[in-house]
């Protein structure tokens, strides 16, 4: 078997091979792209070939920015289109491609890689750990009333908005700013701008490079699939949020994603969606697991959570560089003994945090925690507490205070979440 990097001339072979690996047939392109592979960067792809030159495996990578805790933007390789023909599985093809790809990332100077795992049991052995999660929330239209906020302002008065009674619509007594409905094709530039502002402030979010929007690659609202956009404007008339949605023949309103600059804009869009006429249920496909919407409902049980699952997986390629790149919110020091079984590496690192920044150097001091690089990937964005993995038996705490110390140090200012599909 031979593994090599791809060029633009390999696009057709690459696309045919990855589709064959999953038993599918390539779709017909639309004008200007419109397919998930329209944004492939062929100088970052990998092909696995048999001795006689037949392609049997693929792996791709995209150039993204990942928002780290502290609103720090870091370059990251987004791994995708990984597949091996059914006739050549369990022969080391995938491991060979993963090893080749990680070496290329390091040659490019990249210290982080991310992916969305098709199966949760595959990528841990290559050093990736689940770092963010997402969930689906379904709300019956007849139970979609929102409760009046109970928080009071500085003068002791209730916040604006009357209480929703059992017969009141979701927009009762609330002025959340204007929402207008537009066809997707009329607001592409606005969506790109709003998403870019959002992802720069949201830990765990990935950039959507302009080529993705221009080539209509990925899933709605990027793809050409017919969608309506609910666009929210702030008090000055500036667009600051949107929701991409469609209504099916079964009277289900499905929300692909809601992007908003603040909670007020998000609530305004939510009220609009929950108040849509001639639907029986509203499905929010992609919410953070700690999203406040269930608490905003007058009937807490009205929101049914499903498909609570992992989303973004993270892989560290340079532990000291990765740990010093992100922001921190608690001062302290921790010794981490990190093993990387797939690459055959091990290092002991003294992580010292002061005033939001970290220093990470080799050390001979006794470790506080011993862990696999995949577990460090899960902890990296703050979506998983070290103590959770200690209790699960994956991370070893060397003394009684180690887990609590690590929990305090890794705790994020804001829980990470990723919406982008790639």
TrEMBL record:
Any Pfam family from its record, for instance, is Acetyltransf_17
Ranges of Low complexity composition bias in the record: 145-160
Q: Which UniProt keywords apply?
A: Acyltransferase, Transferase
Q: Does the keyword Ribonucleoprotein apply?
A: no
Report residues binding acetyl-CoA: 82-84, 90-95, 118-119
**Where is each N-acetyltransferase domain found?**
1-152
Q: Which residues form the active site?
A: 123 (proton donor), 422 (proton acceptor)
Q: Where is this region: Disordered?
A: 144-180
Known InterPro entries for this protein?
A: Acetyltransf_17, Acetyltransferase_Eis, Acyl_CoA_acyltransferase, Eis_dom, GNAT_dom, NAcTrfase_Eis, SCP2_sterol-bd_dom_sf
Describe the protein's quaternary organization and the partners it interacts with.
Homohexamer; trimer of dimers.
Concerning PANTHER family, the annotation shows: N-ACETYLTRANSFERASE EIS
Family affiliation = Belongs to the acetyltransferase Eis family.
UniProt-recorded name of the protein: GNAT family N-acetyltransferase
């Amino acid at each position: 078997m031979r593994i090599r990097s791809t060029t633009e001339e390999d696009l057709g072979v690459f696309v045919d091979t990855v589709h064959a690996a999953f038993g599918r047939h390539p779709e017909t392109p639309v004008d200007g792209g419109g397919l998930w592979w329209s944004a492939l960067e062929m100088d970052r792809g990998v092909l696995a070939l048999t001795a006689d030159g037949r392609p049997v495996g693929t792996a791709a990578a995209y150039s993204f920015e990942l928002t780290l805790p502290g609103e720090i933007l870091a370059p990251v390789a987004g791994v995708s289109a990984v597949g091996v023909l059914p006739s050549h599985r369990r022969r080391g093809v995938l491991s060979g491609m993963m090893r080749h790809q990680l070496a290329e990332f390091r040659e490019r100077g990249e210290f982080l890689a991310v992916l969305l795992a098709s199966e949760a049991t595959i990528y841990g052995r290559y050093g990736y750990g689940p770092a963010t999660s997402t969930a689906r929330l379904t709300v019956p239209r007849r139970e979609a009333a929102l409760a009046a906020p109970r928080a009071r302002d500085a003068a002791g008065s209730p916040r604006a908005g009357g209480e929703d009674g059992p017969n009141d619509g979701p927009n009762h007594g609330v002025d959340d700013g204007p929402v207008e409905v537009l066809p997707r094709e009329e607001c592409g530039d606005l969506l790109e701008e709003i998403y870019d502002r959002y992802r720069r402030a949201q830990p765990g979010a990935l950039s959507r490079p302009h080529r993705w929007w221009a080539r209509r690659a990925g899933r709605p609202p990027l793809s050409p699939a017919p969608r309506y956009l609910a666009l929210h404007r702030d008090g000055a008339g500036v667009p600051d949020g949107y929701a991409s949605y469609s209504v099916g023949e079964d009277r289900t309103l499905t929300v692909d994603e809601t992007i908003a600059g603040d909670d007020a804009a998000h609530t305004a869009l939510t009220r609009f969606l929950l108040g849509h006429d001639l639907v029986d249920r509203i499905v929010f496909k992609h919410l953070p697991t700690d999203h406040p919407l269930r608490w905003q409902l007058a009937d807490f049980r009205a929101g049914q959570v499903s498909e609570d699952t992992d989303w973004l997986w993270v892989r560290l390629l340079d532990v000291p560089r990765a740990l010093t790149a992100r922001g921190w919110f608690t001062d302290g020091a921790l010794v981490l003994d990190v093993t990387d079984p797939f690459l055959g590496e091990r290092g002991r690192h003294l992580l010292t945090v002061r005033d939001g920044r970290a220093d990470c150097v080799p050390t001979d001091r006794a470790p506080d925690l011993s862990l696999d690089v995949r577990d460090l990937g899960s902890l990296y964005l703050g979506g998983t507490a070290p103590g959770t993995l200690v209790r699960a038996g994956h991370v070893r705490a060397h003394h009684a205070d180690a887990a609590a110390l690590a929990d305090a140090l890794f705790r994020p200012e804001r829980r990470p979440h990723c919406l982008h599909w790639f």
